[in-house]
Write a structure and sequence with these properties.
This protein is mainly beta. It has one helix and 13 strands. The radius of gyration is 16 Å and the shape is globular.
């Protein structure tokens, strides 16, 4: 039950009266990015319509999300064939999360499927996420790397859709840059 994470830089960030360890992907990852699809200042529904034709397995996503009054809001990755991996912010869970309960093959161990949370408060009503997704992993860097989650996923190869979601209220995509990832 472990994953090899992408290389990261570690640093300390002063936050109020204390220091926080911050993790970010190395800059080299940026060279693997293709041309981005950009979405800005859209309701979740309108943002979902803009990305309806986006398909792929490997993305580097920068997402600024305003959850508004929604209980949960975020992005669904590797969508298709009844599969999806949810990444977002939850008021009820008190932070950012990865939900892999429907992320594909997880029947090999009873503890694999689940929701994994990193505590994080909103800053000025928004959450900033950087999400790196490939064929079998999802890495989430929230609030500039102050909260990080790395999870394995095992979707079928044809599950390559993505969309935005909100549950229990209205939310907004303030800005999203969706970069396809690949070697150059």
């Amino acid at each position: 039950r472990s994953a090899m994470s992408i290389p990261r830089t570690l640093s300390l960030r002063k936050d109020g009266g204390h220091f926080a360890l911050v993790q970010k992907p190395v800059k080299t990852l940026d060279s693997w990015r293709g041309e981005p699809l950009r979405v800005s200042n859209k309701s979740i529904e309108d943002a979902a319509a803009e990305v309806a034709e986006v398909h792929g397995a490997r993305f580097d996503i920068q997402l600024r999300l305003a959850p508004g009054d929604a209980d949960e809001a975020g992005i669904k990755l590797r969508v298709g064939n009844g599969e999806e991996t949810l990444v977002g912010w939850s008021r009820l869970k008190g932070g950012v999360f990865v939900d892999r309960t429907h992320s594909g093959n997880g029947g090999f161990h009873p503890d694999f499927r689940g929701v994994y949370v990193a505590p994080l408060d909103l800053r000025d009503g928004v959450v900033d996420l950087r999400i790196v997704c490939d064929d079998c992993s999802v890495e989430v860097f929230a609030d500039g790397g102050a909260a990080v989650i790395t999870d394995l996923i095992f979707p079928s190869g044809s599950s390559q859709g993505l969309t935005f979601f909100a549950k229990g209220g209205e939310a907004k995509v303030v800005a999203a840059n969706i970069f396809p990832l690949g070697r150059r």
